[in-house]
Amino acid sequence: MRINHNISALNTYRQLSINNSMAAKSLEKLSSGLRINRAGDDAAGLAISEKMRGQIRGLNQAVRNAQDAISLIQTAEGALNEVHSILQRMRELAIQAGNDSNTPTDREEIQKEINQLTSEINRIANTTEFNTQKLLNATSGTVTAATPATSFTDELATNTQIKLNGTYEGTNDITLILKYDGTNYSYSTDGGKTFTNITWTQISNGTNTVEVAEILGITLAKPETDPSTSPVMDVFVLEAAKSAYSSFSMQIGANENQTMTLDLSDMRAAALGISSSTGGNGFTSNQTVTDGTNNTPVEYALDVSNATNAGNAVTQIQAAIDRVSAERSKLGAYQNRLEHTINNLEVAAENLTAAESRIRDVDMAKEMMEFTKQSILQQAATAMLAQANQLPQAVLQLLR
Fold first, then answer.
1. How many domains are there within the chain?
2. Which residues form the domain of 224?
3. End-to-end CA distance of the chain
4. What is the pLDDT of residues 334-352, one digit of tens each?
5. SS3 state at 261
6. Would residue 118 count as lying in a domain?
7. Mind listing the pLDDT tens digit for each residue in 161-190?
8. In this structure, are 234 and 249 located in the same domain?
9. Domain boundary at 190, 217, 238, which?
10. Three-class SS of residue 80?
11. Strands (E) located in the chain
């Protein structure tokens, strides 16, 4: 029997220390609700969990970003709703001015309202903003300048057919078939629609001078060779004019390059074709339109001083209405897409949160079972340590 080293007590103390440590860990997990409170609890699980947390927070922020993008779109679309109302009123006034029952004085009064309404369109486009950024005058975000309709693209036509692959405005993979009867040219589509009595207009881009005609919204140039005798020829296609526009990049994902670009076109009066920087040719001879932010006239309005000009104004205003309609439709499509994006992001965040929870969070019922076990072992070890400490006292019986 030994008294210098109580091996039983040492063994029991070691077990008690282990039980105390395990019970403390269980208490920590139960009180925090986390299975992993430090890297030592599960090193690999911690790394995976932190990566998931980054994705979850990124997805939740992307949802807020998409909601902000919708707010931006709604701001722009709301402004264009009023532009539509103004254009409808202007069209009504132009039709009214086209009636020769009006006196010159009557038409002057109509002209005054058209001037003011045109200025108001400028004001809306120049002042509509979201978070201090202009939305409708192509000055914020990434700005792409306007391109005039004087850029010629040489299209190769085989067997008198021109394939337009959708890269031009107003087309969607259309084939135009060119015919020539020795005197007149005509175009027909592969769907059977025929365009005859084409009106050709001479235009130049500074280098080439060609005769052009508009077919299906595409300005085509008259070919230089007779299509009835030449199986292969070159036909110039005049690319459509494009307004300036602003591009806003929206981060709608949790990672790099998960973005969406919103393009908002210039919606000022000149871009809509209802005002001009030069007078005449259907516009007033004096500057009567402001930019909407002050009272200084800087542009020429559509002229309705006679029936001919009023008729031209109706056509121009209708074209502007169509442009605003197209822009609003585009914005509506953006918004619908973003609403689906938000739904997708929320589902992804929810599922990823569930996965992260399985790694990081503690199962309270299971951990309570573990704590109960450790508590019982802790009490038992304490009791056994007391018994082990009594064992050396048996030596005293030998010393009597």
1. 2
2. 152-238
3. 15
4. 999 999 999 999 999 999 9
5. strand
6. yes
7. 555 543 333 444 456 666 766 677 777 766
8. no
9. 238
10. helix
11. 129-130, 133-134, 142-144, 152-158, 161-164, 174-180, 185-189, 194-195, 201-204, 209-215, 218-221, 232-238, 245-251, 259-265, 275-276, 300-301
